[in-house]
């Protein structure tokens, strides 16, 4: 993932990952308490994310609905790798178990996250590459 979602985009993505396909109004109604956004701000964030191909868009009975087009595990993996490798300069395997209590990740998703974070790092280090 070349670019990572910002805080606003992550707020919207988490709604899609939890609920699935929704209209912009449904997203707005579910995040406005947390964000304080106006409806037009919610639409701007959704449109920007659709332009980045992070959300899909389709019409259902005259209503436009959106859904996440990027995997939460891939996004979390990218964020974790950037923080630990680029910000904190930590090398080696990362303890993915620290995310075990997250309500956003199932056991299978934790295994996938571990594979994305640590397996790719091990493969690169065996070839002498840096992330």
Automatic annotation (TrEMBL):
Gene3D superfamilies: Winged helix-like DNA-binding domain superfamily/Winged helix DNA-binding domain (1.10.10.10). Keywords: DNA-binding, Transcription, Transcription regulation. Belongs to the BlaI transcriptional regulatory family. It comes from the Bacteria. Residues 111-131 are annotated as: Disordered. Pfam families: Penicillinase_R (PF03965). This is BlaI/MecI/CopY family transcriptional regulator. It comes from Hirschia litorea.
């Amino acid at each position: 993932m070349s670019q990572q979602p910002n805080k606003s985009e992550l707020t919207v993505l988490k709604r899609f990952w939890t609920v699935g396909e929704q209209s912009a109004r449904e997203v707005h109604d579910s995040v406005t308490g947390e964000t304080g956004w106006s409806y037009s701000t919610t639409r701007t964030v959704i449109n920007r994310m659709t332009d980045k191909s992070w959300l899909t868009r389709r019409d259902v009975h005259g209503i436009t609905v959106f859904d996440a087009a990027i995997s939460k595990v891939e996004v979390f993996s990218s964020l974790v790798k950037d923080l630990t490798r680029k910000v904190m300069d930590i090398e080696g395997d990362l303890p993915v178990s620290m995310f075990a209590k997250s309500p956003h990740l199932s056991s299978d998703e934790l295994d996938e996250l571990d594979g994305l974070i640590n397996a790719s790092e091990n493969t690169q280090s065996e070839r002498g590459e840096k992330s």
